[in-house]
Amino acid sequence: MTSIQGATVTITGGTGSFGSIMTEHLLARGIGEVRIFSRDEAKQDDMRRRLSDSRLQYFIGDVRDMDSVEAAVRGADFVFHAAALKQVPSCEFFPDQAVKTNVRGSHNIIEASAKVGVRSVVCLSTDKAVYPVNAMGMSKALMEKTAQAFARRNPTSQTVVSVTRYGNVMYSRGSVIPLFIQQLRQGEPLTLTEPSMTRFLMSLEESVHLVDHAFLHAEPGDLFVRKAPAATVDTLARAVASLLGDDDPDIRVIGTRHGEKLHETLLSREEMVTAEDQAQYFRVPLDARSLEYELYFEEGERRIARTEDFTSENTARLTVEETKELLMQLPEIQTLLAKAIA
Ligand SMILES: O=c1ccn([C@@H]2O[C@H](COP(=O)(O)OP(=O)(O)O[C@H]3O[C@H](CO)[C@@H](O)[C@H](O)[C@H]3O)[C@@H](O)[C@H]2O)c(=O)[nH]1
């Protein structure tokens, strides 16, 4: 199969921001069937009413529960694994829950998919998994390791397992952009944790294309990232305010939250050494060496010392005007501005 047309795709966490935009994207691209796998029946019901498409099938279940996972992936060609505990503060307070969902749950998805012969599994990860300092990132790093270890241990498997790693997806549920908009509307000051903090910025639209790319082109154990630009939180706040007509917003600095980094890293220097430049993306192939390290000594990785991490500090840095341009591509912002003009 060289396209996803007519295929069956299971999306775990299918009612989340990422899962639902991926669903709409697949429906628009002539997909045969999309299975929404998630825990929340109310969210599924909302989605059923909103999208009303006979190609959508809904599965209630939990990635922690193998029976429900198997039922949802049996007969699927592709699995997009987006179900996760992804809020940094909640994982800091309940790391065991992050392990159950993000690590064990991902293991279940991969094992069940391999058992029933799924063609390709793409696991959604985050820049917070690189040099992780918080429990969410640590559990996602272990998810990545689970995917890579599967590929290394099962070189003849018909199931290709890969990872896509993202920075901040703009306007995702519970994130800072909708919060800034709410604060501006209520006439409150914009709360900035640390003005100089930087984050990679990408839209959901850009993010789903990377999943398509991984579905169709991944080799076992591949990791993909998008070459995204970044902005400081101060720039982001000023860009959002300016779009809403306020070029000199009130700003209150509140200090960083539990487990936050000043800058994020999309690829470590060790990964940059082997990364293949694919225009918009970097592809990092699996380190498929066995544990017999002396076999490789001659070729050893000496390039590491000459390479840098790929971070939100050293990637292309957006100005307020450039951030506004990026924000204006978001459907949510377009709707907001259209309403403001009407
Ligand atoms: O009142 C606030 C809240 C947040 N921030 C800052 O805004 C940036 C973005 O914050 P937020 O939108 O909450 O995202 P992150 O905490 O960076 O984490 C998001 O981005 C990750 C990818 O890096 C995803 O994995 C997470 O699920 C998602 O919550 C950060 O620098 C925050 O410190 C503020 O300045 N003021």
From TrEMBL:
SUPFAM superfamilies with a match to the protein in the record: NAD(P)-binding Rossmann-fold domains
Sections of the chain in a coiled coil: none
Record-annotated UDP-glucose 4-epimerase CapD C-terminal domain positions: 287-334
Pfam families named in the record: Polysacc_syn_2C (PF08485), Polysacc_synt_2 (PF02719)
EC number of the protein: 5.1.3.2
Segments forming domain Polysaccharide biosynthesis protein CapD-like: 9-284
Keyword Isomerase: yes
CDD domains: UDP_invert_4-6DH_SDR_e (cd05237)
The entry's keywords: Isomerase, Lipopolysaccharide biosynthesis
Catalytic reactions of this protein: UDP-alpha-D-glucose = UDP-alpha-D-galactose
Superkingdom in the source lineage: Bacteria
Family of the protein in this entry: Belongs to the polysaccharide synthase family.
Protein name (record): UDP-glucose 4-epimerase
Organism: Georgenia faecalis
